[in-house]
Amino acid sequence: MNEQQLYDFGDGLPVNTTLKVQLRERLTAPRKHVRWWTLALTAGAVTAMLVFLNIEVTSKTPALEARDLDLVGQTTIQQVANGPVAYVGETERGPVFLVPATGIELYKTDGKTVVLASAKQLMAGSSSAETVQNACLSLDGKTVAYELDQNIYTLDTASGERRLVLASSTDMTVSWNYPAFVGSGMLVATRVTSSVENGKLTIDNFGGVVLVDLRSGAQTVLAEQGGLPSATRDGKTIVFTQLGDAQPVAQLTLEGRVTRHYGQQGDYSAVISPDGRYIVFMTKDQELAVTDAGSFSTRRILLGKGTFYNLRWSRDSKGIYLLKFASIEGWSATYLEKLELGKTDVANAQDAVRKYLEALILHQDDIMRTVWKQVPFEGPLSGPGAQPVGYTIGTVRQANGKTLVSAQETYAYAMNPWEIIQDTVFTVVQQQDGRYLIETVSDGPRLFMTLTGRDNRITVAKPDINGDSSHGDAKTYQTLFDLNGSFNEELKKETGLEVTGWGASQKTGDDAARQVGATPLDPNGFHLTALGYDPDAGWVVFALQRANGDYRLYAVRIRQDVSVEPMARLIGKGSGAFVQSLVLNNEGRVLVNLDMALQNGVVLHQGMVCDVGQREYAPSTALADFMTKGGWHVMTAFWRGDTLAVAVTRSTGETAIDSHVVDVNPVTGVLAQTP
């Protein structure tokens, strides 16, 4: 059972009333406690535990100063995997992950994957629907400990030998979870005890921290109540979490069995770094925070409110892995992210804007938040609606001690003829700790236009003299190209089909008004589904799409002389794919983002480049070759000015586990750098 399942499970649990009375009697110690049974078992709370050891000692870990945590605040976030992939540990050969479908996998630094323990090995003899949870790796990288069916097992990755270390009782009144290695020969885990009342299983104690000697099997109870234990690399200090106390983080020194209490009421899921210097934890407001392990005196928020769980430190204590659950308008997903502390990839104001825009393109909200001085609103910064598909950094100037960075951004709706091009001005301020953070965003003075395709016409809407770019004002529209008449006649002559509609009506919610008139793709005709516009060169590109995956790409040069009818030229066609977006750069090249539906139900993303100046189809074959080399798959592609950026990932099983954004020469397909 993972943390998220525990959160959901906790709301319906009955409480042992007899235990409540006993606890009330015990809660008369001088230290001020809060009656824990009055607290709702909200997300994360069920995993935190009470501890009643009240011994105060002096920590041997040197306290960190505030400037140390200022350095921690310079954080780079990497989205490591899509799906419920969990970080297990690390070896000299690379990081190790738990992939539910395949098992424990080592992801080597050369990009190759090695299965250290298969899912079949890990689950041998289990007939339940439970999967392996909460796996961790020993310091020498040879042994994996994990939870299965509320038992704790270890498995030797070399021999495949599996041992049952902590067994739940047959009546489930005792169960186990959250193992963690302590030094080289010990293991600590959470014990959950229950009782049966009137035929119902009732949780008596949400935790108990138990130390196990892996050689002898001897067990030592470190705390009657507590949970989610973690240990330092030397095995001398264990941290676990309690709830209901004014200081809910317990730090226990094994030598002498002494415990200190830290934190603020509501803190939970505390995990100590291997070197013993930091503790990462969740606040009562579901924020991810870090503090110094020596005194817990300075707290720094790393991520704003969210659903984060399975917190793990990297081997070098410089990074934090976590699972993030995200949900937007009925859509949900789980991501594995890594926060690299003390590292920043922002060297100036332009870098801050680039990082923000690329994270916006890739829907990486947590990364976007790291470059904001103060996030303008709660909730996701990206979501349904127009998707950024390209950007160009423009002028940079100084004003009143602040840096103003202008950028031109292109937005498009997937498979719908609607493109927005706008200028934006970002106000960036350098902080005292050296970070560059975005303070405000405002519309630029030069450009804002919308390209729309409806009723077989491609039109552009520009702001009126008051800056209003409302699409409902017919006076702002200019027809760029009409697909009726001669174009439709030529199309029917060549293909036997006509343009019968526009868009791919698949969206709801905020997009519903925009799609009035859009219909599902037609098997007996083409729909106008994607547009691209270069207002400087006057090129318009558009896609015609059929329901069976046939598509045709056209380019039109819009002439200044309106008496000359523009002619559309075919620049590409294909089958078995759906054109998601078309984006032009300033050099007359169009980026085509395609989704290809394979027979097994998998959707393969592909990007290719066409030159609108060529009468014949001229895709960059070198770019296509890059996609198939080394096991890389394309998530999406976009323009960084005139440079092609490709977000790529490698897959293990059904899960993407290694993601990068690389620069690709749009003509030759050669990578500017190797991921």
UniProtKB/TrEMBL annotation:
Pfam families: PD40
Stored SUPFAM superfamilies: DPP6 N-terminal domain-like
Coiled-coil intervals: none
Keyword Kinase: no
Organism superkingdom: Bacteria
Signal peptide (from-to): none
Gene3D superfamilies noted in UniProt: Dipeptidylpeptidase IV, N-terminal domain, TolB, C-terminal domain
Keywords, comma-separated and alphabetical: Membrane, Transmembrane, Transmembrane helix
TM helices/strands, residue ranges: 34-55
Organism of provenance: Candidatus Cryosericum odellii
Protein name: WD40 repeat domain-containing protein
